[in-house]
Amino acid sequence: MAWTWLTIAGLFECVWAVGLKYTDGFTRPWPTLLTVAAMAVSLALLALAMREIPVGTAYAVWTGIGAVGVAILGIVFFGESRDILRLASIGLVVAGIAGLKLSANGGPIG
Predict the structure, then answer these.
(1) Quick check: 60 and 100 in contact, CB under 8 A?
(2) Cα(14)–Cα(107) distance, rounded to whole angstroms?
(3) Which is nearest to 5 in space by CA: 38, 60, 54, 42?
(4) pLDDT tens for the 110 residues of the chain, in order
(5) pTM reported for the whole predicted model
(6) Do the Cβ atoms of 13 and 73 come closer than 8 Å?
(7) 53 touches 2 (CB < 8 A)
């Protein structure tokens, strides 16, 4: 269940990171409220996941999900660059997340 909590926490990290764009420096009440709520949910779920997943792995996966998710959302919704280097870099982050997941608790070999 910890990996499920961590995945959902990472998705909520995407929500609050994109939400920051809409808060206009925390001057718009509704986007600010939703962003802060997403932050709270994300952190609470990260804390739950860290009960079973090592802190270094959990934090790296959480930030990786957020980084990849926000980069993709930036491309899709905000017209950010889709050049090959950017896409390859996103792929490397995904590979790192997968590697951390596979290596958790000894991995498939250990």
Answers:
(1) yes
(2) 27
(3) 42
(4) 999 999 999 999 999 999 999 999 999 999 999 999 999 999 999 999 999 999 999 999 999 999 999 999 999 999 999 999 999 999 999 999 998 888 876 555 44
(5) 0.87
(6) no
(7) yes
CA-CA distance, 78 to 90, in Å (whole number)? Answer: 17
From 65, 62, 61, 67, select the one nearest 102 (Cα to Cα): 61
Give dist(CA 68, CA 97) in Å, integer.
Answer: 10
- CA distances (Å), origin 75, targets 7, 19, 55, 62, 92: 21, 15, 30, 20, 17
CA distance 35 to 109: 40
Cβ proximity of 73 and 18 under 8 Å: yes
For 2, the 3-state DSSP assignment is helix
